[in-house]
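Narrative summary of target 7.
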Amino acid sequence: MKTIIAMAAAAVLFAFAPSTCLAVWDVLTVTPERAKELGMEFRTADGGKNQVKVELEIPLAGDLGRVSEVILKVGQGDNSPVTVPLKEDRSKPGRVVVHFWANRATVELISLHVSVPGEPGTVGGAMYDLRLKDFVVVKKER
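Modeled conformation, tokenized:
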């Protein structure tokens, strides 16, 4: 009888004990039109025969007011072989700027993920997915 009571008590404790909860992040695909509405600006510069410099400027206002990081992903689908956070330049008040160099042939495989956590005291947030091929026109090699 003691075993049954102990097992029942343990089951009740496990049922009400805190458990790991994964935060909910909304993944939002950003079109060039939506990026313009959000105030995001892409700039490119020729970097030689096979390279292009890409710069993204993000305003720290409105929906993007709490940008925590920008992640560069190379690959297709959810299984990207390369995922790296970009170094942010926050020297301009109210703006975050990131930049990187890419081979022209890989532009179609690159996406940027802008992480914006939810309000303080909440879990999750929004992940803005920007596919580079939608924003950057790459000149063909000569």
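The first strand starts at residue 25 and ends at 29.
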